[in-house]
Write a structure and sequence with these properties.
single chain, about 140 residues, alpha+beta, four-stranded antiparallel β-sheet, 3 helices, about 25% helix
Length: about 140
Protein backbone atom coordinates (compact mmCIF):
# COMPACT_ATOMS: atom_id res chain seq x y z
CA UNK A 1 0.00 0.00 0.00
CA UNK A 2 1.36 3.43 -0.96
CA UNK A 3 1.96 5.86 1.91
CA UNK A 4 -0.11 9.05 1.82
CA UNK A 5 1.79 12.32 2.37
CA UNK A 6 0.34 15.36 4.08
CA UNK A 7 0.15 18.57 1.97
CA UNK A 8 3.18 19.94 3.88
CA UNK A 9 5.18 16.75 3.17
CA UNK A 10 4.12 16.82 -0.49
CA UNK A 11 5.27 20.43 -0.84
CA UNK A 12 8.58 19.63 0.84
CA UNK A 13 9.07 16.55 -1.36
CA UNK A 14 8.31 18.49 -4.55
CA UNK A 15 11.04 21.02 -3.69
CA UNK A 16 13.73 18.35 -3.22
CA UNK A 17 16.40 18.53 -5.89
CA UNK A 18 19.03 15.79 -5.91
CA UNK A 19 22.61 16.98 -6.23
CA UNK A 20 23.64 14.01 -8.36
CA UNK A 21 21.98 10.89 -9.69
CA UNK A 22 24.25 8.79 -7.44
CA UNK A 23 23.19 10.66 -4.28
CA UNK A 24 19.77 9.67 -3.01
CA UNK A 25 19.53 11.69 0.20
CA UNK A 26 20.57 15.10 1.43
CA UNK A 27 19.88 14.17 5.05
CA UNK A 28 23.27 14.33 6.79
CA UNK A 29 21.86 12.52 9.84
CA UNK A 30 21.82 9.38 7.69
CA UNK A 31 25.62 9.54 7.53
CA UNK A 32 26.75 11.11 10.77
CA UNK A 33 26.07 10.71 14.46
CA UNK A 34 25.73 14.12 16.11
CA UNK A 35 27.99 13.06 18.99
CA UNK A 36 30.77 12.47 16.45
CA UNK A 37 30.34 15.89 14.84
CA UNK A 38 32.16 19.11 15.46
CA UNK A 39 30.37 21.70 17.60
CA UNK A 40 27.99 24.02 15.77
CA UNK A 41 29.51 26.79 17.92
CA UNK A 42 32.78 26.39 15.99
CA UNK A 43 31.07 27.66 12.82
CA UNK A 44 31.84 31.32 13.45
CA UNK A 45 34.33 34.01 12.50
CA UNK A 46 37.76 32.46 13.01
CA UNK A 47 36.30 28.96 13.06
CA UNK A 48 34.97 26.49 10.53
CA UNK A 49 33.59 27.82 7.25
CA UNK A 50 29.91 26.87 6.84
CA UNK A 51 29.34 24.71 3.76
CA UNK A 52 25.98 23.74 2.30
CA UNK A 53 25.37 20.47 0.47
CA UNK A 54 25.07 21.36 -3.20
CA UNK A 55 27.26 24.46 -2.82
CA UNK A 56 29.66 25.07 -5.69
CA UNK A 57 33.32 26.11 -5.48
CA UNK A 58 35.96 27.32 -7.95
CA UNK A 59 33.53 29.20 -10.20
CA UNK A 60 31.02 26.34 -10.24
CA UNK A 61 33.54 23.64 -11.16
CA UNK A 62 33.09 21.54 -7.99
CA UNK A 63 29.85 20.75 -6.17
CA UNK A 64 29.68 19.61 -2.53
CA UNK A 65 28.11 16.18 -2.15
CA UNK A 66 28.69 15.22 1.51
CA UNK A 67 30.87 16.02 4.50
CA UNK A 68 33.60 13.43 4.93
CA UNK A 69 34.89 14.59 8.29
CA UNK A 70 36.55 17.23 10.39
CA UNK A 71 39.69 17.78 12.37
CA UNK A 72 41.21 20.31 14.72
CA UNK A 73 41.61 23.00 12.06
CA UNK A 74 39.49 21.95 9.08
CA UNK A 75 36.52 20.16 7.58
CA UNK A 76 36.72 17.83 4.58
CA UNK A 77 34.00 17.58 1.95
CA UNK A 78 33.31 15.15 -0.88
CA UNK A 79 32.95 17.17 -4.08
CA UNK A 80 32.29 16.29 -7.67
CA UNK A 81 33.84 17.97 -10.69
CA UNK A 82 30.68 18.75 -12.64
CA UNK A 83 32.44 18.51 -16.00
CA UNK A 84 34.43 15.28 -15.58
CA UNK A 85 32.16 13.68 -12.92
CA UNK A 86 35.29 12.73 -10.92
CA UNK A 87 35.17 12.97 -7.13
CA UNK A 88 37.59 14.95 -4.97
CA UNK A 89 38.08 15.83 -1.32
CA UNK A 90 37.92 19.55 -0.50
CA UNK A 91 39.61 20.54 2.75
CA UNK A 92 38.63 23.89 4.24
CA UNK A 93 40.70 25.22 7.13
CA UNK A 94 39.45 27.36 9.98
CA UNK A 95 39.98 31.03 9.22
CA UNK A 96 41.89 32.10 12.33
CA UNK A 97 45.43 33.16 11.40
CA UNK A 98 47.25 30.83 13.81
CA UNK A 99 45.92 27.78 11.89
CA UNK A 100 47.90 28.88 8.82
CA UNK A 101 51.18 27.37 10.04
CA UNK A 102 49.63 23.90 10.33
CA UNK A 103 48.14 24.22 6.88
CA UNK A 104 51.44 25.37 5.37
CA UNK A 105 53.19 22.37 6.98
CA UNK A 106 50.58 20.06 5.47
CA UNK A 107 50.95 21.65 2.03
CA UNK A 108 54.74 21.18 2.24
CA UNK A 109 54.30 17.48 3.05
CA UNK A 110 51.81 17.00 0.19
CA UNK A 111 54.10 18.79 -2.27
CA UNK A 112 57.00 16.57 -1.19
CA UNK A 113 54.85 13.45 -1.66
CA UNK A 114 53.77 14.67 -5.08
CA UNK A 115 57.36 15.29 -6.18
CA UNK A 116 58.24 11.65 -5.37
CA UNK A 117 55.07 9.92 -6.59
CA UNK A 118 56.83 8.31 -9.58
CA UNK A 119 59.80 7.05 -7.53
CA UNK A 120 59.94 3.25 -7.22
CA UNK A 121 60.36 3.46 -3.43
CA UNK A 122 57.21 5.57 -3.14
CA UNK A 123 55.24 3.23 -5.42
CA UNK A 124 56.25 0.21 -3.32
CA UNK A 125 55.37 1.95 -0.06
CA UNK A 126 52.04 3.15 -1.51
CA UNK A 127 51.20 -0.38 -2.66
CA UNK A 128 52.04 -1.78 0.78
CA UNK A 129 49.78 0.78 2.47
CA UNK A 130 46.94 0.17 0.02
CA UNK A 131 47.18 -3.58 0.61
CA UNK A 132 46.31 -2.94 4.28
CA UNK A 133 43.09 -1.10 3.45
CA UNK A 134 40.00 -3.27 3.30
CA UNK A 135 36.84 -1.75 1.90
Amino acid sequence: MEQQLSPKEQDSKSQEQPIDDDVSSNDSKEYENESDAESIDDYRHGGYHPVVLGEKFNNGKYQVIQKLGFGYFSTVWLCQNLKTKHYYALKIQKSKEHYSESVLDEIEILEDLKSHQSDDEWKNTRDQILSLIHI
